[in-house]
Amino acid sequence: MKTAKDTNLTLCPKCHKLNNFIAEPQQCTRCHGHFYQRQHNSLQYTLAWNLAALIAFIPANLYPIMIVYRLGIPTDATILSGIGEFVDHGLYPIAVIIFTASIIVPLFKIVGLFVLVYKAYTGIRLKPGKNSNFYRALELLGPWSMLDVFVVALMVTVVELGFITSVGAGPAINYFTMTVIFTMLAANNFDPRLLWDKHIEDKNLRATKLSE
Q: Which parts of the chain span the membrane according to its record (predicted)?
């Protein structure tokens, strides 16, 4: 099995023109843009952004995401306590949606990116085809992580009854937004072609050892 890199070819990320690789930075023969055959320090940047997302994810769940004022008395509500409120009122579908978008999706994406970085670096149990599909699934999950932010913004807009009841965004909304942004940056910096490079490298290494 050969990759485009093995045949001295490279794909322009801007216009998707297949170019003969000459030197980095490569200049595209169609759009004349400059690019690299592989993203430089892809795993390092992905790991750094993913760690930042994990750190921001902790206060996003500990700090209040909403502050509800009833007759001027503030009541803090974290993501989990807000989900509990929906469950207590029998609003199970909304509770499931918020729990999935706020807890499951960001955590799944963070853990998934750590796994991909680990496999691309070590090659352990590496199945590049399946892992590339897994990476694309993680990319698709990114925008859905913002659902909780949209819900808070909607509640702040709709549930506004002056002094009787009002809703404000809590400090966790900032950390939650940072978590979403950091995971999106981590996913964008990960180069899935490294999975195939490592697979070919390990395959060639095993073939060399067998020939010896």
A: 47-71, 91-121, 141-166, 172-190
**Residue extents of the structural domains in the chain:** 1-37, 41-199
The pTM of the full predicted model, rounded to 2 decimals, is: 0.73
- Tokens coding 128: 């590049």
Residue 84 corresponds to which tokens in the numbers above?
Answer: 């509990």
The second-level CATH assignment, the architecture, of 41-199 is Up-down Bundle (1.20)
How far apart CA 210 and CA 124 sit, in angstroms, is: 19
Whole-number Å distance between alpha carbons of 45 and 190: 8
pLDDT tens sequence across 165-199:
666 778 888 898 898 889 889 988 888 878 777 76
Residue listed under structure tokens 């099995």: 1
* Residue 179 CB coordination number (10 Å): 27
Residue 146 contacts residue 179 (beta carbons within 8 Å): no
Closest CA to 109 of 153, 63, 57: 57
- What φ, ψ does residue 179 adopt, rounded to 5°? -60, -45
CA angle 9–15–21, rounded 5-degree value: 20
